[in-house]
């Protein structure tokens, strides 16, 4: 993945977390979703937002494999390719 592309995806993810979920912590690619304190409903809403923003489909089985922001970035990049 191109560094600039990864940075743009990271910025978009961080924006969603700030605006829709009130996360004010610094978001990096190493941020773990558990650190953010999202409950299961908020995580589901976040996934729906990612699907809409990036025009991808994120099945539940794939979602369960995402633990960090970097995982989400890689997934988005692999589906947009």
Given as residue ranges, the uncertain stretches (5+ residues, pLDDT < 50) are none
| Number of E-state strands | 0
Q: What is the rounded Rg?
A: 12 Å
Count the DSSP helices. Answer: 4
Task: Report the end-to-end length measured between terminal Cα atoms.
Answer: 10 Å
Question: Judging by the overall fold, what is the CATH architecture?
Answer: Orthogonal Bundle
Please name the fourth-level CATH homologous superfamily. ACP-like
Helicity range of the residues? Answer: 55-70%
Strand content: under 5%
Morphology call: globular
Query: SSE order in H/E notation?
Result: HHHH
CATH class assignment = Mainly Alpha
Describe this structure in words.
With about 80 residues, the chain is an all-alpha fold. Helices cover about 60% and strands about 0% of the residues. It has helices at about 5-20, 40-55, 60-65, 70-80. It is globular, with a radius of gyration of 12 Å.
Topology:
Layout: H1 3-21, H2 40-54, H3 60-63, H4 69-80
Helix pairs in contact: 1-2, 1-4
């Amino acid at each position: 993945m191109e560094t600039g592309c990864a940075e743009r995806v990271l910025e978009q993810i961080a924006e969603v977390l700030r605006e829709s979920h009130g996360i004010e912590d610094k978001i990096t690619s190493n941020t773990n979703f558990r650190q953010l304190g999202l409950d299961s409903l908020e995580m589901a809403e976040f996934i729906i937002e990612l699907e809409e923003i990036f025009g991808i489909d994120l099945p539940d089985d794939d979602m369960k494999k995402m633990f960090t922001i970097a995982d989400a970035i890689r997934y988005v990049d692999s589906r947009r390719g």
